[in-house]
Write a structure and sequence with these properties.
The structure is a homotetramer of 210-residue chains. Chain A has a single domain, classed as Tetracycline Repressor, domain 2 (Orthogonal Bundle). Helix content of chain A is 72%, strand content 0%. The first copy, chain A, is built from eleven helices and no strands. The first copy, chain A, is globular and about 55 Å long. At the C-D interface, helix 9 and helix 11 of C face helix 9, helix 10 and helix 11 of D. Chain A binds a DNA duplex (21 and 21 nucleotides) through helix 4.
DNA sequence: AATGAATGAGGATTCATTCAT
DNA sequence: TATGAATGAATCCTCATTCAT
């Protein structure tokens, strides 16, 4: 109908469902969200959801897939830059930290007891979803892992066990999920400031003095 | 924390229920766990649960309460020591990190979308529980906050915004919840080693070179 | 039966729908078949069905109507012949038995808990359909009844209670519906042989030695 | 509580559910019956059903199992007798024909598009159920098959293809399912008379003149 | 003539909770 | 102290049907 619809005709309706789902999952968790909740959030009925997604699990899967896409999109530019490991990590970390604060709904779905909730659909679907998800996550982590490894090799980072450091870095950057919520009345640069401090602490954890 | 708790850490039967519940909540999340699951885990029926806890929410509340007790017990000795902020934080952090790996079941319950699941019981109960839980958590965080503040004042820690640093520290120490699972065949000192590295990175994040 | 039916046995599109419906009803029963199933069977969507039939019930009704037409067409030539009751019954029975094996899809719809499934549409429609169906069936049975009565009168058949014999004869001839399924690799005359044996047993049941 | 319950304590409640289910399945078919229907039939709620049967399919399976038990019980005495094939078949046939009229509810479930409705439960359950059912049915048919074979060998029966004759015999004896319904005002010996005539026709179909 | 989107009613299933024992 | 039976509300999902195009 409108320009937006015209530009992404195939995506408008499903995206509306995805957004509503992500939002509800954030508020109440996956298991605590009923499809009626999601439908109500859109001002529609369950039928609309089932028209696009054949089960609650598939909906979760789609939300997670999109969340991963968002995450990759956020850090890829920095990852592709020509910087050295310290500056590259700083840029990636900053982008990721900001991304976590901006796209909370999708990110929460990504971290909501993820391993467990894939119960619907048939066994084959579940396995495919899980595999796809694990593989995406591994690919994402590998981007950080590569930079950490490069900095470890060059002596820029002080890292004892790479995988522990990787987990620590990512956990720290993700941490806002559990304690930060955007507020209408906060200063404009709040998110930037939080991101900067998290990034500095992250680098500090790797032995980089700033 | 109080005398009663310390002296009678819960009779056998209720503790069996709590353990079973914590274990199930860890595996499937609170919302994904049915009371039948918990009962089956004990080799009993739901009646046993209802004999000691009057609702599912209350059970969750009890599991969380016990988790908090465990957490306080873990860091209190270090907190009460006479060390300076750096060594005191190191000791507390190490104790907490180890605690997170040893008591996963109870800790997972503590972090499972905590704010949301308190739906049963009457309004008054809910408010009491939430208040009690928030207050416990604040008290726990305050122990870390005090040490951070002391180190910030003395110049031992480089901290810009105290609350951000506090969140970062605790998140990092909690992080094993999401990625570490004890394995029968791992070297005996695995948990100690992980704890040590996490503590070092934590101190590094606060500008302490090690 | 009437000229219209004989001359325009249904246009192509509606017949395609009917065939698909009959096939699905055979496979999964009426209640177990969704209109999506039928549509998928045609490689189309539900709209096509609704274009020709205004409800699922009406579709069933149409399938049954066509099944009855097929049945009448099968036995009418033999019925109209000048033979005596034994030979006439033999010819009708053989034709009907063969017909049941050849047109299984439509025949199954006819015998699928027929009385029950007429739920859609308005009351008037339902009553009309039921009445029409019962009347068709009675007319069909009456053709057999007439021959049995003639043979009973002439002493050619040993029949105690006519209606019981009628039910027995028709049930026996219909029986292949429950146990016979055409197979690609069966000898060409399999159906003919089954029909012959069923007919002989039917006549035997009426006291005709063959 | 009462004597009946005391005598069959483990069975009373489940049997009530089974009877209600059989009755509903007869009236509306399996797919057309909702568990609410069954519950209402008992003056209870669905919970009662699920307390004893874990799915609708399992309920159907249980009804069928019981129906087969009834069928075996009906013909076994005659089968175990010392009679020759003609008299043995006559006795078995009579018992089975009467059984079909007396236990319509359970028998209908047995013949209601049986192959199709096993959709619930997991694949393993389904396969077990189907296998168990097919095996029971085969065992039941084999009892008739043995008598037919004996009579065929001795020349007492004129049978061309044994399996066709077997199907015909059983179909004929089952036929009352489709056309007979007990009525309060029918003469007392109606069922006996129908059974006798069906048996005579069955024997006639096998070339035995009576 | 046909499609895709959307709805709403109904149906299978789960589960916290109550109760008699 | 604990159990088994039963309930009813909630939840996932299906499907006949309508409608705009």
């Amino acid at each position: 109908m409108n320009a937006q619809t015209a530009l992404k005709p195939a995506k408008a309706a499903p995206k509306q469902v995805l957004d509503a789902a992500a939002s509800c999952f954030m508020e109440k968790g996956y298991a605590g969200t009923s499809l009626d909740d999601v439908a109500r959030h859109m001002g529609a009925t369950k039928g609309r959801i089932y028209h696009y997604f054949s089960s609650k699990s598939e909906l979760l899967h789609a939300v997670r897939k999109r969340a991963m896409e968002i995450n990759f999109a956020a850090i890829t530019p920095a990852f592709d830059s020509e910087e050295g490991p310290v500056e590259k990590l700083r840029a990636m970390a900053r982008a990721h930290a900001l991304n976590m604060m901006r796209e909370q709904a999708y990110q929460q779905a990504l971290f909501d007891r993820l391993n467990l909730h894939i119960t619907g659909g048939n066994r084959a679907d579940r396995d495919v979803w899980r595999e796809e998800f694990m593989s995406d996550r591994r690919a994402f982590e590998d981007m950080f892992r590569a930079v950490l490894a490069e900095g470890q090799a060059s002596g820029a980072f002080k890292i004892r066990t790479l995988s522990y450091a990787l987990h620590a870095v990512i956990t720290m950057l993700n941490s806002t999920i559990s304690w930060y919520r955007p507020r209408a009345d906060e200063p404009e640069n709040t998110q930037a400031q939080i991101a900067d401090e998290l990034v500095n602490m992250t680098l500090g954890a790797l032995g980089v003095n700033t």
